[in-house]
Write a structure and sequence with these properties.
The chain has about 400 residues and is of the alpha/beta class. It is about 40% helix and about 10% strand. The protein folds into two domains: about 5-220 and about 220-255, TIM Barrel; about 290-395, no CATH class. It has a seven-stranded mixed beta sheet with strand order 2-3-6-7-8-9-10. The protein is globular, with a radius of gyration of 21 Å. The structure holds iron/sulfur cluster.
Length: about 400
């Protein structure tokens, strides 16, 4: 029995300091709690402060569309950037069929021409194909259907109340047939449970056949507070695999076994090349003064992660677990890795890409490689490289706070 609590929110748009792997800058959660009740859900973690009865007590933010309208209509400096639906709930969980909060949020986003990134497990998203088509036509859209295992039995154990994998693949097909950009998210991969080679291969095959344009993946993180539910479910359904899983994790709840990650991602890289499925779609690029910043940042982030979207050649874990900590300021090597190279993310490019307003800080590394810029912005690349060189000459050594002046 699900208890629904109407709720009047104070704010609706959560802004990230840095964009995530899906290019999302803002998140909207129309609900708190999620009826799908996945045992690995990070939103059960302590830092999200969501009530204990996560899948049976759902808080519906009924005024979210009105709040959003007010925020977008009156914001002086809030320029469009990608809005993710959702961060800590599924915006198309069964309750949405009647409540229609997510649909009204989409209407507001479409009206204000904000690009949208959808992640869901629900076939109900197909109800909103008309709005999604409008958003894809007028700005930018990305839809990721999460499918962690091709097998009903495994999905049932991990995602007890979510639609079965076949229904999710049918949803991918329906959205692809409607001309929408849709991909599959194998998020998370549960080590020793859903990382079997045959299972991953089947996921890639089915995703391809359903019309997915990309397939992203990440590793399960064991968030403090959320791991209890996960461990109980593992003890119930896969008790023999728990010790092997535990051996891969460190005390922060992150997969820390480099050999495991490298072997798994090498295998996934092979699948990407075989099935022609990159890890995500190209970034949304605004048509205003931020354009070049976003283009350069996209190249930096893609390079840092070892490839580029669309090339079918990325193999890094999208959760950033292999990303370096900021502060490692080693000099970039001029030698570019081959597109299919697998290795640690490059910290300079990664953090320069994420701190768009701090790009001048990394201008010396950019200046050293004008080929990147030429590749990014075509004929203007050489001019941009010249300007960057000039900026670099006059920049103080400390971190700059300037946006690139073009
Ligand atoms: S569908 Fe997403 S938000 Fe809902 S329980 Fe599962 S992982 Fe959490």
């Amino acid at each position: 029995m699900v208890r629904v609590e109407p709720h009047t929110s104070q704010s609706v748009l959560n802004t990230l300091r840095i964009v995530n792997g899906g290019w999302v800058r803002h998140f909207i959660n129309p609900y708190r709690g999620c009826q799908f009740g996945c045992v690995y859900c990070y939103a059960r973690g302590d830092k999200y402060y969501i009530h204990e009865d996560f899948e049976r007590r759902i808080i519906a933010k009924e005024n979210a569309p009105e709040l959003l309208e007010r925020r977008l209509a009156h914001a002086r400096s809030l320029r469009p950037d990608v809005v993710g639906l959702s961060g800590a709930t599924d915006a198309w969980q069964p309750l949405e069929k009647k409540a229609r909060i997510t649909r009204r949020v989409l209407e507001v986003l479409a009206r204000h021409r904000f690009p949208v990134s959808v992640t869901t497990k629900s076939p109900l998203v197909a109800r909103d194909i008309d709005l999604l088509q409008e958003i894809a036509r007028t700005t930018w859209l990305s839809i990721t259907i999460t499918i962690t295992s091709p097998h009903d039995r495994v999905a049932r154990a991990l995602e007890p109340f979510a639609p079965d994998p076949d229904r999710r693949f049918s949803t991918v097909e329906m959205l692809a047939d409607a001309g929408l950009p849709v991909g599959v998210g194998v998020m998370p991969i549960v080590p020793r449970v859903t990382d079997g080679k045959e299972d991953l291969e089947l996921l890639f095959r089915q995703a391809r056949e359903a019309g997915a344009r990309w397939l992203c993946h990440n590793s399960l993180r064991l968030e403090p507070g959320a791991d209890r539910v996960f461990r109980d479910a593992m003890a119930d359904h896969f008790p023999a695999r728990l010790p092997a899983l535990d051996r891969l994790y460190d005390s922060t709840g992150t997969v820390a076994d480099a050999a495991y990650l490298q072997a798994r991602d090498r295998f996934i890289r092979g699948l990407r090349q075989r099935f022609g499925l990159p890890s995500r779609q190209p970034r949304w690029i605004p048509d205003d003064f931020r354009r070049v910043n976003f283009l350069v940042a996209e190249v930096l982030i893609n390079r840092a992660l070892g490839g580029r979207p669309g090339a079918g050649d990325e193999d890094e874990d999208d959760d950033g677990s292999s990303r370096p900590a900021p502060g490692n300021r080693r000099r970039l090597s001029r030698a570019r890795p081959p597109a299919s190279c697998h290795g640690p993310a490059d910290p300079d490019r990664f953090w320069a890409g994420h701190r768009i307003n701090n790009l001048p800080f990394c201008v010396s590394t950019l200046r050293d490689d004008p080929a990147y810029l030429a590749e990014t912005i075509g004929a203007r690349g050489a001019v941009v490289a010249e300007v960057l060189a000039l900026i670099a000459r006059f920049l103080p050594a400390r971190r700059g706070q300037l946006a690139l002046p073009f």
